[in-house]
Amino acid sequence: PVEQLYTRDILALAAGIPVRPLVMRADHVMTARSPVCGSEIRLSVSFDAQGKVQASGYEVRACAFGQASLSLFARQLEGASIEAVRLAAQALQAMLKGSNEISGLWPGFEAFMPVVEVPARHAAVMLPFQAFELAAKAHEQQAPERSTAAPGKDA
């Protein structure tokens, strides 16, 4: 039943998205869209010299699941490395597929457990991570030298 999917936790998260407008002069601005429900997230990201998220912002036109996921995602993103975000995405994807091996899952994402049984909603839950992955790939392709430490600097 629908009421079991739209839990109080999901609705509270969807209503509580931190306000972060798109970053002016961001390194990358990417859009991810769910083909199933039409949900869309536009994410702007700037990275520091070590490849960690320095600033981010977003625009969201998404269902409650996309909004709730963005709400949790936004709280963990600042200062995260590309690898940390990728590991969190892998853990969330594994959880959605029913795996018990979800180490690396960011706090709060267990709220999506009811969605495990509804694969049509998985894409909306993954939207923030998909937009981030597009930005991360663009960042890595644009400046592969950024992923290595400069001579005399600690990695």
What does this entry look like structurally?
The model is unreliable at 146-155 (pLDDT under 50). The protein is globular. It is built from 5 helices and 3 strands. Strands 1-2-3 form a 3-stranded antiparallel β-sheet. It has helices at residues 2-5, 8-15, 64-77, 82-96, 122-142, and strands spanning 28-33, 40-47, 53-61. The protein starts with a helix and ends in a 13-residue tail after the last helix. With 155 residues, it is of the alpha+beta class.
Give a concise summary:
The chain is built from 5 helices and 3 strands. With 155 residues, it is of the alpha+beta class.
Figure out the total of helices: 5
Mean pLDDT, all residues: 89
Radius of gyration: 16 Å
Estimated share of beta-strand residues: 5-15%
Q: What overall geometry do the principal axes of the alpha carbons give?
A: globular
Compute the separation of the termini in Å. Answer: 50 Å
How many beta-strand elements? 3
Largest sheet: 3 strands, antiparallel
Order of helices and strands: HHEEEHHH
Fraction of residues in H or I helices? 40-55%
Major beta sheet, strand line-up: 1-2-3
Helix/strand/pairing category: alpha+beta
Poorly predicted ranges: 146-155
List its traits:
alpha+beta, three-stranded antiparallel β-sheet, 3 strands
Element layout with pairings:
Layout: H1 2-5, H2 8-15, E1 28-33, E2 40-47, E3 53-61, H3 64-77, H4 82-96, H5 122-142
Helix pairs in contact: 2-3, 3-5, 4-5
